[in-house]
Design a protein that fits this description.
It holds the Pfam family Alpha_adaptin_C. It is a peripheral membrane protein. Adaptor protein complex 2 (AP-2) is a heterotetramer composed of two large adaptins (alpha-type subunit AP2A1 or AP2A2 and beta-type subunit AP2B1), a medium adaptin (mu-type subunit AP2M1) and a small adaptin (sigma-type subunit AP2S1). It is found in: Cell membrane; Membrane, Coated pit. The structure is a single chain. The chain has 862 residues and is of the alpha+beta class. The protein has five domains: 108 residues, no CATH class; 76 residues, Leucine-rich Repeat Variant, CATH 1.25.10; 190 residues; 120 residues, Gamma-adaptin ear (GAE) domain (Immunoglobulin-like, Sandwich), CATH 2.60.40.1230; 114 residues, TATA-Binding Protein, CATH 3.30.310.10. Helices cover 50% and strands 13% of the residues. The protein has 37 helices and 16 strands. The strands form four sheets. Strands 11, 12, 13, 14, 15 and 16 form a six-stranded antiparallel beta sheet that branches. Strands 3-4-5-8-7 form a five-stranded antiparallel beta sheet. A three-stranded antiparallel beta sheet has the order 6-9-10.
């Protein structure tokens, strides 16, 4: 009570002690809370800046719901009042931020929201700093209310980064002007998509200036200077990655981070590796990230800090593609032998995924997985050894090699149990393929497996018994030997009921069944149907639940880095097809079943047309849709559309004339989307040339949640239009309608073709008819950077042919467009003129419409 009485004093020292006592010791349920609130209201109304500051500090320190109910409506008025002192505005902004974090439902949005944004223009940088923290938090939940803050934030940031350290003397920290405010402004801009072109130009200049300053010699040797400077730099790089729209900035950011990889500061190396993991997922900076592979591998071997080694593993995984897969997998396997136990399982999953995804020669894949089991067998989950079995069964060309390899591996004195499982399964299916060699005769195979039997657990013994009965069918000459084993007391009277039942039933089956019945019951397993990759699902679960932004952080594969095609049709589709050898084995199921029937075959298409009726008139496209569509011509992954409510992300892969696209719909608000209905709209002409099949999505999307939709694609013939994705839903009682063009373009079905100089020009001359060539001379729209040009041509889908054109400044490419009805060879030549800032693009193909369409698409990229 004495403390409450002190609040009424007009002396600063007494009032300060009273507020301090209340902030520390008074419970929010205290009977005195009403008296305290009255005293605080009196001080807030006093207009004495010192007393108002003490009251605001007390509210923020207590931060209870009762305080929020009492003052959440008053504090915004103080914040935006014209006569409020700067120090009080700072305290009011931070106090309101505290109340919003504890009780967001009690802080009303109103007229003050538009006025608080203009505090970003305040002359007092302390007010701007506090206001930026408040606006950033509010904008995350109510982006529409604060979208005007983007241009003001860019303007303020521009003034800071272009100022000298003497201009902002009170807010310069070790020669870095206002580093905390710069970081907060950059973080605020990450709440929104890239701004309008006029504002974007100014923001790009700011980011370039920050990158340039990072290259300058340090103005101080003290660690505080480098910490402040690097804090601004890393936040700027995060914004560049978030926007993912400026190739030049992305490459520069990557080069800057590359310099930090060998820095003596452990924290800088960690942050550089973490940021480069994200940069590796951008189409424009992926190649630049790959140039640092040796440095990352060296970090994996020499780093003393396990967390830095973990980030190095993540970066190797992110930068992996077909060109470096074998090197990266080999380095991960070497590191696995000495890796910390806490990260071994994750490394095993990543090695298994990379080995499968980028396996050109599946004998290498089999060797890699068996080596994985040998090195870290305890950390190889069931999903991993299931996958190797599925792949061997689905690929005829690797079955004999797999049988030979596991047979040799099993001869080691000490084998991990997972290797016994793989060996038992594969020899039971394909042991006959190596039985002709006296060194791996049927009896030797059986004795080798049976020598491991007593060392294994019950599930593995059960699998081996199944292998034995398979041997009875494959090798009748050892039938008696196997029957003796099954007939032994250790099997027929086994304490485990599963083993006992198998032994009894298998023995009876081998005794009474005819050869034909045995061959039917024990026939070779059929190919497994395609499903979601269980290894990939396990890795995602281990890394945490997916969000919309995870799409930008995950690995973005190029079309040239893909093993497979489309997902199978759902169960109610009219056709189902057995996977071909070229099918995407990442889509296989979770584990080998004990019995499986072959899927019904059909002579029809792998995909079925989902459009039973002609599409209605196309809805008007959302603002910026066309610009985003053009960005996806040379990339397969990223954010296609984003506004204050909805984010649409894409992740796609293409193989020959088949493709699969994952569409991620993210609810950016805290309110549910109801009757959420995405629809694909195609014209009649497009339907005739492009088969699309979608899977339905949940009609309710919770606040902050993400749903995924899969689109299976088949190119029947060349096409020029693109399908339109229309999304309709209800948000807060209001009907929302968004339409965007889906970036399915003809070049997605490009397969790159390597050619020597002589072959290229010979083919070039063969395609010399006027209707086979299309040429376009155009002004450059973007900086004429050779590295970015190379990345775009590779992203377009063709192979980039080095040292083919006599002029080294020219770019030459070759590839084949795959459709169901035809394969169309394509040659391209891009001739830059740096002085005139112009390009000449020439396309030659065997079909005029293909030449024209590819020329139109590629011309827009430069």
């Amino acid at each position: 009570m004495e403390a409450v009485n002190l609040l009424s004093s007009n002396r600063y020292t007494e009032k300060q002690i009273g507020y301090l006592f209340i902030s520390v010791l008074v419970n929010s349920n205290s009977e005195l809370i009403r008296l305290i609130n009255n005293a605080i209201k009196n001080d807030l109304a006093s207009r004495n800046p010192t007393f108002m500051g003490l009251a605001l500090h007390c509210i923020a320190n207590v931060g209870s719901r009762e305080m929020a109910e009492a003052f959440a409506g008053e504090i915004p008025k103080i914040l935006v009042a014209g006569d409020t002192m700067d120090s009080v505005k700072q305290s009011a902004a931070l106090c309101l931020l505290r109340l919003y974090r504890t009780s967001p439902d009690l802080v009303p949005m109103g007229d003050w929201t538009s006025r608080v944004v203009h505090l970003l223009n305040d002359q007092h940088l302390g007010v701007v700093t506090a206001a930026t923290s408040l606006i950033t938090t509010l904008a995350q939940k109510n982006p529409e209310e604060f979208k005007t803050s983007v241009s003001l934030a860019v303007s303020r940031l521009s003034r800071i980064v272009t100022s000298a350290s003497t201009d902002l003397q009170d807010y310069t920290y070790y020669f870095v002007p206002a580093p905390w405010l710069s970081v907060k402004l950059l973080r605020l801009l990450q709440c929104y998509p890239p701004p309008d072109p006029a504002v974007r130009g100014r923001l790009t200049e700011c980011l370039e200036t920050i990158l340039n300053k990072a290259q300058e010699p340090p103005k101080s040797k003290k660690v505080q200077h480098s910490n402040a400077k690097n804090a601004v730099l890393f936040e700027a790089i995060s914004l560049i990655i978030h926007h993912d729209s400026e190739p030049n900035l992305l490459v520069r950011a990557c080069n800057q981070l590359g310099q930090f990889l060998q820095h003596r500061e452990t924290n800088l190396r960690y942050l550089a590796l973490e940021s480069m993991c994200t940069l590796a997922s951008s189409e424009f900076s992926h190649e630049a990230v790959k140039t640092h592979i040796e440095t990352v591998i060296n970090a994996l071997k020499t780093e003393r800090d396990v967390s830095v080694r973990q980030r190095a593993v993540d970066l190797l995984y992110a930068m992996c593609d077909r060109s470096n897969a074998q090197q990266i997998v080999a380095e991960m396997l070497n590191y696995l032998e000495t890796a910390d136990y806490s990260i071994r399982e994750e490394i095993v999953l990543k090695v298994a995924i990379l080995a499968e995804k980028y396996a050109v020669d599946y004998t290498w894949y089999v060797d890699t997985i068996l080596n994985l089991i040998r090195i870290a067998g305890d950390y190889v989950s069931e999903e991993v050894w299931y996958r190797v079995i599925q792949i061997v069964i689905n690929r005829d060309d690797v079955q004999g090699y797999a049988a030979k390899t596991v047979f040799e591996a099993l001869q080691a004195p000490a084998c991990h149990e997972n290797l016994v499982k793989v060996g038992g399964y594969i020899l039971g299916e394909f042991g006959n393929l190596i039985a002709g060699d006296p060194r791996s005769s049927p009896l030797i195979q059986f004795n080798l497996l049976h020598s491991k039997f007593h060392l294994c657990s019950v599930p593995t013994r059960a699998l081996l018994l199944s292998t034995y009965i398979k041997f009875v069918n494959l090798f009748p000459e050892i039938k008696t030997t196997i029957q003796d084993v099954l007939r032994s007391d250790s099997q027929l009277k086994n304490a485990d009921v599963e083993l006992q039942q198998r032994a009894v039933e298998y023995l009876r089956l081998s005794t009474i069944a005819s050869t034909d019945i045995l061959a039917t019951v024990l026939e070779e397993m059929p190919p497994f149907p395609e499903r979601e990759s269980s290894i990939l699902a396990k890795l995602k679960k281990k890394k945490g639940p997916s969000t919309v932004t995870d799409l930008e952080e995950t690995k973005k594969e190029r079309s040239a880095d893909m093993n497979g095609g489309a997902e199978p049709a759902p169960g109610n589709a009219s056709t189902v097809s057995t996977p071909s050898p070229s099918a995407d084995l990442l889509g296989l199921g979770t584990g080998p079943p004990t019995n499986a029937a072959p899927p019904p075959s059909s002579s029809g298409s792998l995909l079925v047309d989902v459009f039973s009726e002609p599409a209605s008139a196309v809805t008007q496209l959302a603002p910026g849709s066309q610009e985003n569509f053009a960005r996806f011509v040379c990339k397969n992954n990223g954010v296609l559309f984003e506004n204050q409510l909805l984010q649409i992300g894409l992740k796609s892969e293409f193989r020959q004339n088949l493709g699969r696209m994952f569409i991620f719909y993210g609810n950016k608000t805290s309110t549910q989307f109801l009757t959420f209905t995405p629809t694909l709209i195609c014209s009649d002409d497009l339907q005739a040339n492009l088969n699309l099949q979608t899977k339905p999505v949940d009609p309710t999307v919770d606040g902050g949640a993400q749903v995924q939709q899969v689109v299976n694609i088949e190119c029947i013939s060349d096409f020029t239009e693109a399908p339109v994705l229309n999304i309709q839903f209800r948000y807060g009682g209001t009907f929302q309608n968004v339409s965007v063009k889906l970036p399915i373009t003809l070049n997605k079905f490009f397969q790159p073709t390597e050619m020597a100089s002589q072959d290229f020009f010979q083919r070039w001359k063969q395609l010399s008819n006027p209707q086979q060539e299309v040429q376009n001379i155009f002004k450059a729209k973007h900086p004429m950077d050779p590295e970015i040009t190379k990345a775009k041509i590779i992203g377009f889908g063709s192979a980039l042919l080095e040292e083919v054109d006599p002029n080294p400044a020219n770019f030459v490419g070759a590839g084949i467009i795959h459709t169901r009805t035809a394969q169309i060879g394509c040659l391209l030549r891009l001739e830059p003129n740096l002085q005139a800032q112009m390009y000449r693009l020439t396309l030659r193909t065997s079909k005029e419409t293909v030449s024209q369409r590819l020329c139109d698409l590629l011309s827009e990229q430069f």
